[in-house]
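Re: that chain you flagged

S.,

Sorry for the slow reply, it's been a week of failed gels. I finally had a moment to sit down with the sequence you sent. For the record, here it is as I used it:
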Amino acid sequence: MPIIKPVNGKSPIIPDDCYVAENATIVGDVTMGKQCSVWFSTVIRGDVHYIKMGDKVNVQDGAVIHATFQKSPTTIGNNVSIGHNAIVHGCTIHDNVLVGMGSIIMDDCVVESNSIIAAGAVVTKNTRVEAGSIYAGVPAKKVKDISEELISGEINRIADNYIKYSSWFKE
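Prediction finished late last night. Pasting the structure tokens below so you have them in one place:
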């Protein structure tokens, strides 16, 4: 059974059509949209500031989503995939974004729509990721514009696949 608990009088809001793995932890001021999935060993900790997630967000195994006390909440748009072991902290991620495995997005960053953060990238504090681009490296920098093929073939495909995968665990 997942750990889902209130902190300081604020309880997570998780729609019935979402999937939360048995060993995931979701605490505090967390609001999830429809058709989201939170996978094994994930921590979403809304104890120090709010975390808001749109529809069709998947937070893959071992990822951590947190915020900064009284300063930087975390907001995640629709159709976002957060890869295995990624850290998303006190930032804003717009719609249709793929956050690669093991990447880190720091406080006060903005990741605009239709973008990819490459696996292992570190997006440093206050970075603005341009819409329609791929950022990679440490520190992350723009490496190229994203193609329509990558938007449909990767960003949308992965988000849709995670809705399918979560259905296997709800049966």
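What I noticed first: The longest strand covers residues 43-53.

Talk soon,
D.
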